[in-house]
């Protein structure tokens, strides 16, 4: 509940405890063991921000925060708490304006970002790349910019990595050495992110952060709920989302300084999953973002079981604190209790370390910044009850809300032309050129063989013609010779006949002469 610039959060010794709206961008922590009321505190705080016209984003890791979309249900215990907190006149069971989101696209509108928006630096932190691999990834992004290759999703990134690796010798002179080992390392690092749902997270249409900074017709801040039941089991993807979100806000929002109320407030439940086994570089990035984003008018609240789950460098930035009960059965747990107690401004009325282990469900040690930014003295506080449903929303209500919240533009995946398609087209064009070149070479080969065969046939025909002409010549020669022989034989016969005739004639003449001679005698 919002009252005079303060969010009414509970009662301590009959006094109202509130968090100053203008100091709520100093970030905060809600901690406590399982079952102590952290989720109820987060819901009550989110309702108060919404009532004050502040848009809210929160992670629903168990599925029960979705009840913000439905009015709470009256019960004897609720009526007693309403009277206890003295809010009978202003309390009413009500639903809050909610917009559901889900990276896995099951319980809300798809939530996507592009790989280009994530950028090489954040992506390197998330993937835990070595300095050499990070350098290669920066080169890959630079080449993609220079070549007009948009990296929108993971298949685009894989395609560009393959393209750069294939042509690394060509790029070395202009961009530096690109080792195939580094490219292989980046590709291997992408596998866990893909397996956790990165192929759903990266793509278009990408989220416009302005769509989370809306109010409804009554001026209430829209509560954006990210269904995170599966997401929290994928720490790499969860960290990817959180880092991108803070980086996007830091880049998009102008410097705002201290405002009367935040522009946007985030609640990250199960925050320990963001930092469990996280590389130092990732923790440093989170710390940097938490420090810088305050000046943009954005508040970040981590919800976890123990303050020890949050790195000290980040914990130091969380000024508004709600500490629910902790259990201390082991020396390590006792140490954690003492550390949590020492983080508060001391209250002489009690020992915080003792009270932390005595707190009941719905009770907490609370310390908020006052209007001057000074941490308030720790108070043992009964946390106010939410006005919305304490449980999961009915699916019909979720469906109706999604149909009417105006965010349907994100529901359909859009696969715009990007690096994958461009490189695929180039590869297909190269294959087509190779095919055409092969066909041209084959035609040239066939033409050469045809010409060779033609020449061979022509040579054979020429030789055949020569042989035929030679044969014809020989035949004519033989015929001539035969004719000549025939003529010679005919002449010989004629000669013989003449000779015979002459002989015969001579004989007759001789005979006649002889006879004449004889008769003359």
Give the tally of β-strands: 12
The main pleated sheet reads as:
12 strands, mixed
Oligomer: single chain
List the uncertain runs: none
Q: How far apart lie the N and C ends?
A: 195 Å
Q: What is the beta-strand fraction?
A: 5-15%
Number of helices: 15
Order of helices and strands: EEEEHEHEHHHHHEHEHHEHEHHEEHH
What is the helix fraction of residues, given as a range? 40-55%
Derived structural class: alpha/beta
Written overview of the protein:
With 521 residues, the chain is α/β, with parallel strands linked by helices. β1 (2-3) and β2 form a beta hairpin. Strands 1, 2, 3, 4, 5, 6, 7, 8, 9, 10, 11 and 12 form a twelve-stranded mixed sheet that branches. The protein is built from 15 helices and twelve strands. α3 (115-127) crosses α8. It has helices at 38-51, 76-85, 115-127, 131-146, 154-166, 168-175, 180-201, 235-252, 272-275, 280-293, 312-315, 331-342, 352-356, 395-404, 419-520; strands at 2-3, 6-12, 15-20, 28-31, 56-60, 98-101, 223-227, 264-268, 298-304, 320-323, 363-367, 379-383.
Question: Features of this protein?
Answer:
521 residues; alpha/beta; twelve-stranded mixed β-sheet; 15 helices; 11% strand; rod-shaped
Structure described in brief:
With 521 residues, the chain is α/β, with parallel strands linked by helices. It has helices spanning 38-51, 76-85, 115-127, 131-146, 154-166, 168-175, 180-201, 235-252, 272-275, 280-293, 312-315, 331-342, 352-356, 395-404, 419-520; strands at residues 2-3, 6-12, 15-20, 28-31, 56-60, 98-101, 223-227, 264-268, 298-304, 320-323, 363-367, 379-383.
